[in-house]
Specification:
Keywords: DNA damage, DNA repair, DNA-binding, Hydrolase. It contains six helices and two strands, in the order βααααααβ. The protein has about 140 residues and is mostly helical. It starts with 6 loop residues before the first strand and ends in a 21-residue tail after the last strand.
């Protein structure tokens, strides 16, 4: 049975790592290669110096929302496509909740049928809680 992802305990690591067995299979296909590239880029991004004031919280959805992100990539990144992302604003009620680029929660859950657990980020802004795929607020951007 499919389960809807909910937010759970905070993530403590920085870059998600798939189980060895799963990772071997993934690297043989397009989605697996894409996910590996994302892991590498995420590690480079997190190695940058932290932002200073006035930035108090930075979310890394590819860490805490890795499960639904992987589900999205494995479902929709099966064949080569010509895609260009021009700047991505994940929004507090979009990718920040789902791990899916431009992924407003209702559409990710109901239309795309993405599933997976979402953990809490290590530092969560009190006005922008991560509720995962159970979030009822919509992204307006």
């Amino acid at each position: 049975a499919e389960t809807v992802g909910t937010a759970t305990e905070p993530v403590t690591g920085t870059v998600p790592v798939a189980e060895e067995e799963e990772e071997e299979d993934d690297n043989d296909d397009l989605a697996g290669r894409f996910l590996q590239l994302e892991r590498e880029q995420s590690a480079l991004l997190q190695a940058l110096p932290p932002f200073g004031e006035p930035v108090s919280h930075v979310y890394h959805p590819l860490d805490y929302a890795w499960e639904p992100h992987c589900d999205f990539v494995r479902r929709y990144c099966r064949t080569p496509k010509r895609v260009l992302f021009l700047g991505m604003n994940p929004g507090p009620f979009g990718m920040a909740q789902t791990g899916v680029p431009f992924g407003e929660v209702w559409h990710v859950r109901e239309w795309l049928r993405v599933v997976g657990g979402v953990k809490k980020p290590p530092s969560e802004h009190p006005k922008r809680p991560v509720l995962g795929l159970t979030c009822r607020r919509a992204e307006v951007s």
